[in-house]
Amino acid sequence: GQQVMQIPQYQHVQEGEDFTTYCNSSTTLSNIQWYKQRPGGHPVFLIQLVKSGEVKKQKRLTFQFGEAKKNSSLHITATQTTDVGTYFCAARNTGTASKLTFGTGTRLQVTL
Amino acid sequence: DVKVTQSSRYLVKRTGEKVFLECVQDMDHENMFWYRQDPGLGLRLIYFSYDVKMKEKGDIPEGYSVSREKKERFSLILESASTNQTSMYLCASSLPVTYNEQFFGPGTRLTVL
After folding, report:
1. Is A48 on the interface with B (CB under 8 A)?
2. How many CB atoms lie within 10 A of CB A58?
3. Using CA atoms, how far apart are residues B112 and B85, in angstroms rounded to an integer?
4. A53, B2, B12, B70: which could join B103 in a potential S-S bond, CB 3.0 to 4.6 Å?
5. How far apart are CA A21 and CA A105, in angstroms?
């Protein structure tokens, strides 16, 4: 099946530093979604990107979809302790309308 | 708000037992999914269903089966539990529209001894 690689697997930052996680697919994607899972919680939808080169922002979070629709990134500016959790990308191939393939996730730890 | 509930938060079973994991959603979603989550492997799709009595295999269906007799309920069955099925199991639901988010339940942490 399709594979979606996500890096890094883990990152530890000081509060106020920036953070970026990257998601890569070997195939062209229909769209990509991002989820956040707090420690002990379940994944919660953050955003969806559909168009080639699309950039969306949610406060300190910036999401990008690559021009070739094969990669995506999530950038957090000036991290806060509330950003702690695991961030997953979830990719949808063309022709698989309902099925998502999740990346392996990036666990973010933020310390004061 | 969409609510997805799972029958147990924690479950301990013995090797060889038949295990049922239940998931119920209250938003009339057509699509329902079962994933397992393991450290370093992310979420892997076991089975999904896009309608009552319909099911499709995901990426890792071996050792599992599912049942969807009612729209709101999707059950995951481990016919004969094995230790390598110890994991966190997450249920999700979504509308059938192509570009739709999935709503997850709280998860069931299953330990097979």
Report:
1. yes
2. 12
3. 7
4. B2
5. 9
- Round to whole Å and give the CA distance between A37 and A87: 6
Q: If you write DSSP's letter for every residue of B63-103 in order, what string do you get?
A: TEEEEEEETTEEEEEESS--GGG-EEEEEEEE-SSSS---E
B residues 61-100 lying closer than 8 A (beta carbon) to A: 90, 94, 96, 98-99
B62's CB contacts (< 8 A; 6+ apart) are none
Give pLDDT tens digits for A7-37: 999 999 999 999 999 999 988 998 999 999 9
Give the model confidence (pLDDT) of A54-90 as tens digits: 999 999 999 999 999 999 999 999 999 999 999 999 9
Question: Token digits for B72?
Answer: 């709101």
Q: What is the DSSP string of B38-53?
A: ETTTEEEEEEEESSTT
